[in-house]
Amino acid sequence: MPQSSKFEGVDFSQMNPERLTLEMDVSGQGFRSVRGEFVTYWRQGRVLREVNANISQCWILQFEGSLVGYITLLADKLTLEDPILLNEGVKYRTFPAVKIGLLAVDRRTKGVGRQLLEWAIEYVAAEISPMLGVRFMTVDALYDPDVEPPYDASGFYRRIGFRFAAPNEELPPTEPYRTLYLDLKPVIDLLDSQDIDST
To answer: What stretch of H or E contains 67?
Structure first.
């Protein structure tokens, strides 16, 4: 008889991410990600060190003391070959952005990666953008040509609406990732219209 998953039947959609603090005791014991390095980063304390150094912030989902997934956010800049806001009178090719540093979920869960990503998009649009004037989110989506077929996380982000910063980049890329970005303006406008409707 196959062993049931420790997360079988759990509705994670009703859970909100918690901001990781130094006081929290989340060992990550039993955490299983598709990519082993994301487990290692957690267990060896890399994520907590970066939070402690104030170079990124992390939000986690837990269930009965077990780590379900985590996402880190940090400051970034988006550089594009062509100006993309000319129709708004903006000629810049470089923009402030919030970067998704790490996004890892236990492989025995379903939909948690998308849930954390959608939460982060709304959080940045609602909380960060109004205070700092940040319009874009970026991510360096892992690309690993050493497995068959090559591991390319960009498809996950593209399904949410992210676009390649260098769409004509040759594969395999020179770095082990492909940079993508998301324009938060539609989300910001939607949140603003909801605020107006509620007054």
So the answer is: strand 66-79
